[in-house]
Write a structure and sequence with these properties.
This protein is of the alpha/beta class. The protein folds into 3 domains: 117 residues, Nucleotidyltransferase, domain 5 (2-Layer Sandwich), CATH 3.30.420; 96 residues; 167 residues, no CATH class. 52% of the residues lie in helices and 12% in strands. The chain has a 6-stranded mixed sheet. Helix 5 crosses helix 8 and helix 9 packs across helix 12. The C terminus is likely disordered.
Length: 388
């Protein structure tokens, strides 16, 4: 199999074909970053029927070419720039650098050093991440329009408008106003325009929710079986997490989500403080689930929260403990979903996550029958930190 290394730049890409057995440079080509040249690159590579692409920084400058190749059923691996730099330093020439050498170095790393990571085609989780980002932008635009409408209605109506303002309610209030003078007439016209904009945002948000629900159903995720996780929250959890197997343990996922407390030393004794690290959007999604379960008597989350209060923790501390448990549960559920998809479609994804526990392995078993939360009196598969 021929390895084709890619050194990507903003306007050009350089490809070098390297034989992994002899480590010999066979040929090289330089293309512009255009769809026409992408096709020229693929036509050039077809002289080797068995080939694999090694793209340096496939999630950065090489992302577009990587996605284009994956969509055409090509095998692609990602090579970190630091790995190619090591190859150049260890090769002859005292670290000399040009695009052809960089491309060959990427292929060498993929073939010999084991630093390359397989890249999977974009799937439903990538689409959910796009929809989640779009939803955030739509929600921000709607909030901005509502705030502007509130300011106008405050000047047109005695007492202003209620805080939970909808387009229909705002239109009813605006109909009661008979503007007098150019200033009031302008405010009235602008308020009517903002009401129309809010209706537009509402329609787009509903369409966004339907698209999210369809993709979550298509992914066959069992996150929505958990109380407090609907289609929108599941879409954010899946989209922000990506491939869950990149987290070796539930603790690694909790740290990424910012729900794992940080241990600090104070006056000779160990304490924990709230973590401000991690993905804040993912953290906010887990916070929403925790608050929802706390308000739902009969759920395991509510029972766990009450047990923590009985232990003497403050409401905020008990809430943090619940978020930590929810992070474990969400990770297990996503791992279980990924394992079922792997059984159906064959092996894929990145290695490193263990889905079966052993006596010496702290990684919890990712079982689809996992309960919403471990009860306070049940043995725990992991050792989460206590919240401060």
């Amino acid at each position: 199999m021929m390895l084709i290394g890619i050194d990507p730049h903003k306007s050009t890409h350089t490809a070098t074909a390297v034989d992994p057995e002899t480590n010999r440079d066979h040929a090289s080509i330089r293309i512009d970053v255009t769809l026409q040249d992408y096709q020229r690159l693929l036509d050039w590579a077809r002289q080797w029927p068995e080939r694999r692409w090694a793209v340096e920084n496939a999630r950065g400058l090489g992302h577009h070419l990587t996605s284009w190749l994956l969509a055409r059923d090509e095998q692609v691996v990602d090579v970190a720039p630091s790995a190619t730099a090591r190859v150049r330093q260890l090769s002859r020439g005292a670290g000399r650098k040009n695009d052809r050498i960089d491309a060959a170095a990427a292929a060498c790393v993929a073939a010999l050093q084991g630093d390359a990571r397989p890249v999977k085609p974009e799937g439903s989780t990538d689409a959910l991440a796009l929809l989640d980002e779009r939803r955030s932008n739509l929600a921000q635009s709607r909030v901005r329009a509502v705030n502007q409408l509130h300011a106008l209605l405050r000047a047109l109506l005695p007492g202003g408008a209620p805080r939970d303002l909808s387009a229909a309610k705002a239109e009813q209030l605006l109909d009661t106003v008979v503007p007098a003078g150019s200033a009031e007439l302008t405010r009235h016209t602008l308020a009517a325009d903002l009401i129309a904009e809010i209706r537009t945002w509402d329609v787009k948000l509903k369409d966004n929710t339907k698209a999210m629900a369809a993709l979550v159903a298509e992914s066959e995720s069992r996150l929505t079986d958990t109380p407090g996780i609907g289609a929108v929250t599941a879409a954010r959890l899946l989209g922000r997490t990506g491939n869950p197997t990149r987290f070796a343990t539930a603790s690694a996922f909790a740290q990424y989500a910012g729900t794992a407390p940080i241990e600090i030393a104070s006056a000779g004794r160990a304490r924990h403080r709230l973590s401000r690290r991690g993905d804040r959007q993912l953290n906010a999604a887990l916070h929403t689930v925790a608050i929802t379960q706390i308000r739902m008597p009969g759920t395991r989350g509510h029972t766990y929260y009450q047990a923590k209060l009985a232990e003497g923790k403050t409401p905020r501390e008990a809430q943090r403990c619940l978020k930590r448990r929810l992070a474990d549960h969400v990770w297990r559920t996503m791992i279980g979903d990924e394992r079922r998809r792997t059984r159906t479609t064959g092996p894929g994804g990145q290695p490193g996550a263990t889905t079966a526990s052993s006596a010496a392995d702290p990684t919890p078993t990712a079982d689809s029958s996992d309960k919403s939360l471990p009860g306070p009196a049940e043995p725990e598969p992991t050792r989460p930190h206590q919240a401060a």
